[in-house]
Write a structure and sequence with these properties.
254 residues, Pnp Oxidase, Chain A, 2 domains, ten-stranded antiparallel β-sheet, 31% strand, binds flavin mononucleotide, Split_barrel_FMN-bd, Pyridoxamine 5'-phosphate oxidase Alr4036 family FMN-binding domain-containing protein
Length: 254
């Protein structure tokens, strides 16, 4: 499969910064239900297999998921300090998660539509079936399995932005930051070393084995990419846009 130029460049930028964990952080914008911009940092987890789509994980209870259920569009911003390159992507958004009955569902835009450039796969929240279900399930399971143990545990924490009850210590929160966002082996080691009583240990093991009902995979399907290279003189700026299944390129002044 031949990937579009921007995707090859992005792989190169990631490769050049592979020693920097922070190179996998991008800024992700959504629109709130009252029309305001909302922004946060997320971790790039990989591309979906054989596609240009980008994967992140999140808690389905978070506000951004509500926003994407209402308007399944996102803007991503990524700056690679080392190679001095900026990428800005406009994307449609799909969410893969469990419904209340514990079934894997796909919500958002016409789900996974662009995931394989050689075909259109359709799904909706209520009907994630056949090939789409297979694809969604395999992405969902692989992303869960790819998390560190403390990252997995973070999906059993109280809902994001819910008021803290007295007795809910800071430890939970510091674990959450370590794990969910940074996904370091160190965080994973600490969590297993810190396992206290047997009961806590058993609970932790269950959490490892079972996909949390709050776990969600966010699939970003890019349809426009604005690339800026500050190393070159004059600076290089290329605009890429997806027309049907073909990526068009336009070189513009920065
Ligand atoms: C370095 C870093 C990485 C993060 N990675 C993620 C991530 O991959 N997924 C996620 O849901 N939140 C991540 N967060 C937390 C979000 O930025 C945000 O605070 C949280 O998801 C709640 O956002 P919301 O209220 O807009 O839904 C990260 C934060 C930081 C600082």
């Amino acid at each position: 499969m031949i990937y579009p130029e921007w995707r090859q460049q992005l792989s190169r930028s990631l490769h050049l910064s592979r020693s920097k964990p922070e190179a996998k952080y991008f800024q992700v914008a959504s629109i709130t239900t009252d029309g305001a911009p909302a922004l946060r940092t997320m971790v790039f987890r990989d591309h979906a297999p054989r596609s240009n789509s980008l994967l992140s994980v999140t808690d389905i209870r978070s506000e951004k998921c509500e926003q994407w259920k209402a308007l399944a569009e996102a803007a991503l911003h990524w700056y690679f300090v080392k190679s001095r390159e900026q990428y800005r992507l406009r994307c449609r958004v799909s969410l893969i998660h469990h419904n209340e009955a514990g079934r894997i569902v796909c919500s958002g835009h016409e789900l996974l539509q662009n995931i394989h450039q050689d075909g259109v796969i359709e799904a909706s929240e209520s009907a994630c079936a056949g090939e789409t279900l297979k694809l969604a399930s395999s992405i969902f399971k692989a992303r869960w399995e790819g998390l560190s143990s403390s990252a997995k545990a973070s999906f059993y924490c109280p809902a994001p932005k819910s008021a803290k009850l007295s007795g809910e210590g800071d430890k939970i929160n510091s674990d959450k930051i370590n794990s969910d966002e940074i996904n370091s082996d160190e965080a994973s080691k600490k969590s297993s070393e810190g396992a206290g009583t047997k009961r806590e240990g058993d609970q932790a093991q269950n959490e490892q084995d079972t996909i949390s009902p709050h776990f969600a995979v966010v699939v970003f399907h890019p349809f426009e990419v604005d690339y800026l290279d500050l190393k070159s003189r004059p600076h290089t700026r290329n605009l890429y846009s997806l027309e049907q299944t073909k990526w068009l390129k336009q070189s513009v002044n920065p």
